[in-house]
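In response to the reviewer comment on reproducibility (Comment 2.3), we provide here a single inverse folding case reported in full, input and output, so that an independent group could reproduce the run without further information from us. The structure tokens appear first.
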């Protein structure tokens, strides 16, 4: 697991998340721990190192 800090696309607060670096390509939805809005998260790992990290708001 790897901790990663990023900015929420809704409330702009900095939040952290634990990412599973054993899975190379992932996409999942988590709620922001501050404003509770859903965020689509897409981390990409290569040899367990984070290569890219994308967050998108999910319009409701």
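Designed residues, in position order:
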């Amino acid at each position: 697991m790897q901790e990663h800090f990023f900015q929420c696309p809704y409330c702009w607060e900095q939040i952290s998340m634990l990412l599973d670096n054993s899975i190379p390509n992932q996409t999942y939805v988590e709620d922001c721990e501050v404003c509770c809005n859903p965020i689509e998260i897409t981390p990409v790992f290569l040899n367990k190192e984070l290569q890219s990290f994308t967050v998108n708001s999910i319009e409701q």
